[in-house]
Specification:
The complex is a heterodimer of chains A (about 270) and B (about 325).
Chain A (H helix, E strand, L loop, with lengths): L7 E8 L9 E8 L4 E5 L6 H8 L7 E6 L2 E2 L5 H7 E4 L11 H6 L14 H13 L15 H14 L4 E5 L7 H16 L3 E5 L3 H7 L2 E6 L2 E6 L1 H4 L2 H8 L3 E5 L6 E5 L7
Parallel strand pairs in A: 3-8, 3-9, 6-7, 7-8
Antiparallel strand pairs in A: 1-2, 1-4, 4-5, 9-10, 11-12
Chain B lengths: L1 H22 L7 H8 L5 H36 L11 H14 L9 H24 L5 H24 L3 H12 L7 H20 L1 H7 L3 H6 L4 H23 L5 H13 L3 H25 L8 H25 L1
The chains are: A alpha/beta (about 270), B mainly alpha (about 325).
Amino acid sequence: MSGDPNALEAVDLTVRYHGTDRPALDRVSMVVPRGSFYAVLGPNGSGKSTLLRALLGMVPLMTGETRVSGRSVSEWRRRALAREVGVVSQAESVAFPLTVRELVGMGRYPYLGPLQPETSADREAIRRAMERCDVWTLGHRFVSTLSGGELQRARVARALAQEPRALVLDEPTASLDIRHEMEILELLRSSADGGMTIFLITHHLDLAARFADRLLLLDRGRVAAEGEPRQVLQASTLQQVYQWPVTVDDDPTTRVLRVTPQSRRYRS
Amino acid sequence: MRQLAWAGVLILSLMGAFVVSIWLGSVHLTPSEVFAALTTGGDPVARQIVVELRAPRAALAVVVGGGLALAGAVFQALLRNPLAEPYILGISGGAATGAVLALALGLVASHSWALPAASFVGALLAIVLVLRVALAADDRVDVRVLLLAGVVVGAFFGACISFILSVSDARTVRGAVLWMMGSLAGADWSTVGTVTLYTVPAAAVLAGLARPLNLMAIGEETAGYLGTNVEGVKRTAYVVASLLTAAGVAATGVIGFVGLIVPHGVRLVTGSDYRTLLPLSFLAGAVFLTLADVVARTILSPTEVPIGVITAFVGVPLFLVLLRRSLGSAGR
């Protein structure tokens, strides 16, 4: 197919941080097709966040290349890239009092000149994003007064206000209860169904299997497995990557893959 | 709209402060004498006092106060810290050293256009040193390390000035004391013109960076993801804010805490959006320094209190409150 290039691509990617002996990413290649929901899994320190930064041109590469919508990330201007890809990074802290509306409004900065005020189209994009993430009524609240779930929803709303073609998220549900976690994942799934590309870093194997079209499993900077959830989430692979015994079966109620960590202590 | 209303209030306050500054002083003048001096002429002595002494002094307070407040707000965004301020960071000290050195070496005549340039070199040296020291400990700038870096760099430049004084003639020493304590007493129209020439373009550049500065305040990585050229914005903002500080210091010496007090007050009233924070801080800084100078001149009249004393008396308690809050939230 010659039409729409892949949303995100990594080709033979190697990244090594200053003063470390093992590369954070070692010859990683992957392809995120346009409009797919792609989840990245792996133990702590396996290179998931580094992959995200490399895809967005935030770390120097030793080998290889990353591409966004078919173009090498180094050729993108930052503003144009921000209109193409919205990012919800792992954490951020607000140094000064800021309202939710102001935070979400920052998603329109890539569209606005230095002194240009918001247009009605900007305000409309902000309103839509805030409504989709259920933070419209929190507009006047200070960010510092939000609960963890509200803050994450506001940050996702800011990324949606960028009206990007792809959304990249680093453990956006890490500290959330199941309701808020499911709300965000269902929002991402429906965005993917609407044509947006989703690139999600997560620790939740079950939920990744349930929501994502394809999975990438990283192990100490290398690709351990890549493909559809059933191909990737195999007990033997997971056991080796996570160094912990697991069983994999189908959940009888949801009919999706279920990964259950076993107990080492009571193992026969 | 609320922001516009506050801008109106501040502009009116500034006009009021300007009038008060011209009216009050060690020589008593009635309002009608001031009015006559400004318009038709009236008594030549009164005219001399108003037009050649008090008016340029008030005008200098306006540009320097505005510039210092603006520089403070910019450093706060870059360092993500409400305690950042040209004096506390040691930048004013660096600028003063540059100015004193240029004068002591006879490189520039008093108040020429080149004096701010010499200050600028000192200010840049100071900011490079502070960032080096602060970032040596950690990539993320810790409040305590940053303050310590500012103190150390400030002490270094204080020592530099003392050294220059110890090998200079009496005239330089008199001038240098002014630089270390801060005073608007040397104001004349040519100084006002020079400082304005540096301040206006610098303020315009920084106002144009309001959106990127908003993003920097929530983190450099996020700012990058939202379309900001982080390194470019940092370089420009540090350099231009240092220039703004240097222009003020070259004319009035080291006046501390203006960049701390004023942006803090503006944040409380209209929030932290830099698109309104920067212009309102400039106006509020102008009002603040003009009034501080009135207090400095009148409170022990005819003796004049150094204006840096007035700003420190207001700034230090506020600094302590903000420091407690910063350390409290850092510990959480």
